[in-house]
Amino acid sequence: MSKYGVLVMGPAGAGKSTFCTALITHLHNNRRSCFYVNLDPAAEEFAHEPDLDIKDLISLEDVMEDMGLGPNGGLIYCFEFLLENLDFLTEALDPLTEEYLIIIDMPGQIELYTHIPILPALVKHLTRTGALDVNLCAAYLLEATFVVDRAKFFAGTLSAMSAMIMLEVPHVNILSKMDLVKGQIAKRDLKRFVDPDTTLLDDEPGAEEDDGQGVAGDPQTLMKGNSFKRLNRAVAGLIDSFSMVSYLRLEVQDEDSVGAILSYIDDAIQYHEAQEPKEPNDAIEVDEADD
Ligand SMILES: Nc1nc2c(ncn2[C@@H]2O[C@H](COP(=O)(O)OP(=O)(O)OP(=O)(O)O)[C@@H](O)[C@H]2O)c(=O)[nH]1
Q1: What residues contact 178, with CB distance under 8 A and at least 6 apart?
Q2: What is the largest CA-CA distance in the chain?
């Protein structure tokens, strides 16, 4: 029997656990069942107690102490250990019926999503190609506050793309902490980030007056200056050619926003099952009337 799941990913502090909590609360309020899996071996506190916790298999603290590893090496060790002990997941997830949404809360170390082949192996086990046959959707969170620093926004977008290409499952990008950008950026401008407008890399404010050297210490100048123009265009072209990169907006406190994202995730899974392409990002319209 097919199962459904969402793999919640993103950089450290992006709001993954808060999103999982909001998702669980929303599901409870709507009488839907879920099964919450914590795969962060360093996570300590939870608003909702996980139904399955990697710490019952291995804890980062023990690994660091016993193996003399640092936090990043320790995390990789924990995931390698999990891959050698996949029964830990199989035994817990296999009996679940399709009524359950499996919510998997991931750690924030960016390496996991970019160049290490651990996650593809894990996803393979969880999905159709592996033992568990979970219809999985990846939800990649990026902090909305990054949009005020374009270099960070595009770096985040590239890491989201990297995860999307590596995992090959339906993928939804989410700008979290939307409440924190209110007032900092007009909603009209935000539209250019929600559906990344690659000319943003070319029209950095003040770029015309730039002498090509950038200004030391100003994060906005990281991507500007004549010497970066060609690089910026190459990056823009890359993002453009994967035009599936677009963001849903998440206001964690807002039940409607969590509900809309969940229905988008449901849709993404259904479309993937039917193997039809899906137009991204029409779940939440940016409301210019709110400017
Ligand atoms: N203002 C605001 N704060 C948020 C929001 N979502 C999360 N936070 C805060 O951001 C911090 C990090 O949130 P977490 O949910 O722990 O982030 P995480 O991605 O799970 O963090 P790691 O597991 O450490 O990678 C916490 O202090 C949250 O309260 C939001 O929508 N708005």
Answers
A1: 144, 249, 250, 251, 257
A2: 63
pTM score: 0.84
Domains of the chain are 3-196+245-290 (3.40.50.300), 197-242 (no CATH)
Q: Pull the structure tokens for residue 70.
A: 């640092």
Binding site membership of 177 for ligand 1 (Cβ less than 6 Å):
yes
For residue 22, the CA-to-ligand 1 centroid distance in Å is 11
Q: Is 41 in the pocket of ligand 1 (CB under 6 A)?
A: no
Sequential pLDDT tens for the chain (291 residues): 678 999 999 999 999 999 999 999 999 999 999 999 999 999 988 999 999 999 999 999 999 999 899 998 999 999 999 999 999 999 999 999 889 999 999 999 888 877 788 999 999 999 877 778 899 999 999 998 887 778 888 888 888 888 888 888 998 999 898 888 877 777 677 777 887 777 777 765 544 444 444 444 344 445 556 667 777 777 777 777 665 567 777 776 677 888 888 888 888 888 777 764 445 444 444 444 444
Query: Do the beta carbons of residue 262 and residue 8 sit within 8 Å?
Result: no
What are the helix and strand counts (H, E) for the chain?
10, 7
171 lines ligand 1 (CB under 6 A): no
Please state the ipTM of this predicted complex.
0.97
